[in-house]
Amino acid sequence: MAQRLNYFEQSPELLKKLVELNSLFPKTTIEEPVRELVEIRASQINGCAFCVDMHIKMAKIHGERELRLHHVAIWRESTLFSPRERAALAWTEALTQLSAEGVPDGVYERVRTQYSEKELSDLTLLVGTINTWNRLNVAFRMVPGSFDKTFGLEKANLE
User: Fold this and answer.
1) Do the Cβ atoms of 43 and 52 come closer than 8 Å?
2) Distance CA 120, CA 109 (A)
3) How many CB atoms lie within 10 A of CB 8?
4) 0.90 cut: is pTM over it?
5) Given 2.40.128.50, 1.20.1290.10, 3.10.180.10, 3.40.190.10, which CATH number is that of 29-145?
6) CA-CA distances (angstroms) from residue 123 to 2, 102, 118, 139, 151?
7) What angle do CA 92, 151, 24 make, to 5 degrees?
8) Confidence band (pLDDT; 50, 70, 90) for 148?
9) What average pLDDT does the chain have?
């Protein structure tokens, strides 16, 4: 499938702000491995091939183990994730696939045992932001790997 349009060219002012927001996440209380797991899981749920490709490569560059990357889709059954990571993944799923009832109390209680109010606010903004990127990339059919050189993702040595 070919890319439909370049949303960076069509909405540069808005995308500049979204990129600025994205650049703030490394300065938050949410550690990089958790951020990457969240971005991968939301992207898997949303069927965003561009973001799954990009975030797996980024996680690999940042030292994430390959087996954990393969296990993100099956995190509930996997023994490779900490309670904090599991809470973030459950929160990500609940926010990415909002039900008619909203976020279940059990999911909220679970994430609150692992994250402070500040951390939970940061985590929620991260989930919302990756969902926005997913929707842009799915809508306009961004081609996986098309920005590898721009973002230095060829360093992941994944083909």
Assistant:
1) yes
2) 11
3) 14
4) yes
5) 1.20.1290.10
6) 33, 17, 9, 24, 23
7) 50
8) confident
9) 95
